[in-house]
Amino acid sequence: MTVSKAIVLARGLGTRMRAEAGSAPLARDQADMAAAGLKAMMPVGRPFLDHVLHTLADAGLTHICVVIGPEHGVVRDYYARLEPTRVRLAFAEQASPRGTADAVFAAREFAGDDGFVVVNGDNLYPVAACRALGLSDGPALVGFTRSGLLRDGLIAPDRLASFAVIDAPDGFLRRIVEKPEPAWLATAGADLLVSMNCWRFGREIFDVIPALPLSPRGELELPAAAQALVDSGVHFRVFQSDDGVLDLSRRSDVVALERRLAGREVQL
């Protein structure tokens, strides 16, 4: 069944970006957002989150919940003044940054019994990938090829090696590995796809999140939630994408993103 709901995860602390103070030349307003760790509001022509919302709207996902922290009133205030017309915005608060699965759980009232797409607030995904998830008739995720991410994204090879990888030999998820060990990657073969946290879930995800074990980082992670569903017999379709994803993780990403997004028309 086609879904129109999306949850955008924008609660992160931007720890890496804050730690890189002075490492890349930024405009004053950009430096302020970097120091605050508020990547979603990073000015790159428009706040980065504007670009994310525009892409979701183009993909047919027009009822959107942005997950933020209780200290992120600036995000609410900005969109209250903007009064978007293409998208209907809601907000959910994640009290503390306890991981991506916990962030989705914070938006459970918004999701209700409907299917919904989940994306990161600091990634700009291809419209086609988001649309495929919205049209999926059940749980799904997008698996991005390494070659596509390196060719069309702004992701360096060393950073790419730390992302979760997808094992889906028949087009359905069998295993997803968060922060894979280099030794495991070396033996896993060249056909594995990369997860960029681009999902389609149903209400069943809320049944498994409370029972998840904490990751080594002390967080509740979406890959672990998806794996728990797969292990219980839920089928996760994997859509392969050869397109790039624009990633905003470091201060050095800001200048490149600003160049890539220059002149992009945003309609909300």
Key attributes of the depicted protein:
268 residues; alpha/beta; Spore Coat Polysaccharide Biosynthesis Protein SpsA, Chain A; 9-stranded mixed β-sheet; two-stranded antiparallel ribbon; 13 helices; 21% strand
Largest sheet: 9 strands, mixed
Helix content: 25-40%
What is the multimeric organization of the chains shown? single chain
> Number of folding domains?
1
CATH topology: Spore Coat Polysaccharide Biosynthesis Protein SpsA, Chain A
The general outline is globular
Ends apart, CA distance between termini = 25 Å
Number of E strands: 13
Gross CATH architecture: Alpha-Beta Complex
CATH class label: Alpha Beta
DSSP helical segment count? 13
* Percent strand: 15-25%
CATH 4th-level superfamily? Spore Coat Polysaccharide Biosynthesis Protein SpsA, Chain A
Q: Outline the low-pLDDT stretches.
A: none
Mean pLDDT, nearest integer? 89
User: What class do helices, strands and sheet pairing give?
Assistant: alpha/beta
SSE order, as H and E? EHHEEHEHEHHEEHEHHEEHEHHEEH
Report the C-alpha radius of gyration, rounded: 17 Å
Ordered list of secondary-structure elements with their pairings:
Elements: E1 5-9, H1 15-19, H2 28-36, E2 43-44, E3 46-47, H3 48-58, E4 63-68, H4 73-82, E5 88-93, H5 100-106, H6 108-111, E6 116-120, E7 123-124, H7 127-135, E8 140-144, H8 146-152, H9 157-160, E9 165-167, E10 175-177, H10 182-188, E11 193-201, H11 205-208, H12 222-231, E12 237-241, E13 246-247, H13 251-261
Parallel strand pairs: 1-4, 1-6, 4-5, 8-12
Antiparallel strand pairs: 2-3, 6-11, 7-13, 8-11, 9-10, 9-11
Helix pairs in contact: 5-12
